[in-house]
Design a protein that fits this description.
Elements: H1 28-33, H2 39-46, H3 50-62, H4 69-72, H5 83-88, E1 112-114, E2 117-121, E3 124-128, H6 155-167, E4 173-177, H7 186-197, E5 204-208, H8 211-214, H9 221-229, E6 233-237, H10 247-258, E7 263-269, H11 277-289, E8 292-299, H12 313-323, E9 334-339, E10 344-348, E11 354-357, E12 361-365, E13 371-375, H13 377-390
Parallel strand pairs: 3-4, 4-5, 5-6, 6-7, 7-8, 8-9
Antiparallel strand pairs: 1-2, 2-3, 9-10, 11-12, 12-13
The structure holds pyridoxal-5'-phosphate (PLP) and iron/sulfur cluster.
Length: about 400
Amino acid sequence: MKLDSEESCLETDEPPGCEGKSEKWNDWRWQLRNSITDPKKLNEVFKFSPSELEKLEKVILKYPFGITPYYFSLIDISNPQDPIKLQCLPNPEEDNLYFDVQEDPLDEERDSVLPGLVHRYPDRALLTLTDMCPVYCRHCTRKREWQKGKWTRSEAELKEVYNYISLHDKVRDVIISGGDPLILSTNKIESVLSNLRSIPHVEIIRIGTRCPVVLPQRIDDELVSVLKEYRPIWLNTHFNHPNEITPESSKACDRLVCAGIPVNNQSVLLRGINDDITVMTKLCQGLLKIGVRPYYLFQCDPISGTGHLRTSIEKGLEIIKGMRGFTSGLCVPTFVVDGLKGQGKVPLQPLDYVVALEKDYAVLKGYKGEVFRYYNPESINENRHNVQFKG
Ligand SMILES: *Cc1c(COP(=O)(O)O)cnc(C)c1O
Ligand code: SF4
């Protein structure tokens, strides 16, 4: 079952940048075992002041951290505003209070039909397998889970989930999420996939994972050959900044794409990290180059402990407007706000493309800002119909 290099259409050589890295470095279990979880380790590198260290230690009691050596190696230590650092290093600002933030503003708990299964939309269900992740993103929507200790769904809970999905034949798309489901053993993943695949009305399986970005070593031959068995599988990953596109992450995505698993990306709009037209354009163009399609750009949800990373909604609209027409349409993600209390995802478009919808004409504004009239054929048909009717 193992993919040979011909079948996976990959070079067997190490990609540039990986040369000389030890075998251990390329082993995802080594990366996890050696994750940085001790603030003293951070202090050795960043040399915090005693009061900074004290604040940090307080924050991580509430919101623990963990950073793979690989992801940590992408930080430019000399840059205090490094975009990788801002995503993974705990920050005293996580303690700030904002009037609108909550633990679970999207009401995922209320929309959970069973432990681990959110069934909010008619034809798709979201299955959370664990709350563990290779890197704990400071902007995480499920930050509330981190205070519950490390958990993984039990076999008994999963049985209930499979049973529920079997009984609900409208569910044709199951999203396996977390935490990061790919942190689990390949055997456990295979068991979940084979159970879901045995349900006839489950047409597609999606996997939401940040492994290609923060632990690309996880996308190894063994895992890819398992995923390949259970296609159609769509993998959604989570790149936020062009600095995350490295030889290692590119290779991880290439492996998946070569095995017939389309990779899409869901970014979160983050203050000081990617809230900029140039940065977002570079990210999305870079993703296309490694075979990854930008899918969603999310407004950062109002989650306790993430307030300092949010931007205005206008910022997201400005970025979409600055991309549409100026670069490949394939590059442009859909900007989405996830509505509070289970209202679901709301796509937002810049408002000014449609200037007016008049009788027979639409008045539109192009990406260059010029306003023009465009015949509206439906209205014309209606007129013709009216003429015939009268005649
Ligand atoms: C985002 C989400 C989905 C999937 O939404 P798509 O728009 O199909 O990508 C499904 N269920 C829940 C609960 C979600 O939050
Ligand atoms: S990988 Fe996803 S689930 Fe895990 S911490 Fe990051 S945002 Fe949260």
